[in-house]
Design a protein that fits this description.
Elements: H1 2-29, H2 37-40, H3 45-71, E1 76-80, E2 83-84, H4 88-98, E3 102-105
Antiparallel strand pairs: 1-2, 1-3
């Protein structure tokens, strides 16, 4: 009996070791539900909200830069009524003497023209 109990206990130990090895292999070999990192990232509603806010921010920044470019364009003073002037100083002195209206040259009507 001692030999049969010794072999039975050895078989039990061998069986337990085999089961533990299979579990370890199963853990190593088991597939994850994510095949790659791209499967982990999902576009949800909050990502769309962030994207929309970034687009609005970029649009606002570009709109204000465009506004600053066009609003700050200075017109050139080319004359005062029928007289041709060479610069703002000459225009100011002529305007103070006669009260004429300026003749402006500009690419587009900006805030400076008004």
């Amino acid at each position: 009996m001692s030999t049969s109990t010794a072999t039975a206990s050895e078989e039990d130990e061998n069986f337990i070791e085999d089961v533990e090895e299979e579990k370890a292999l199963e853990v190593i070999v088991s597939k994850s539900k994510y095949a790659s990192l791209d499967d982990l990232v999902e576009l949800r509603w909050y990502c769309m909200l962030v994207l929309i806010m970034a687009e609005i921010t970029a649009f606002t920044a570009l709109a204000s830069v465009t506004m600053m470019v066009f609003a700050g364009a200075n017109p050139n003073v080319v004359g005062c009524d029928n007289q041709v002037v060479n610069g703002c100083h000459e225009f100011n002195s002529l305007k103070n003497k006669s009260g004429c209206t300026p003749v402006l040259e500009y690419q587009f009507e900006s805030v400076q023209v008004e």
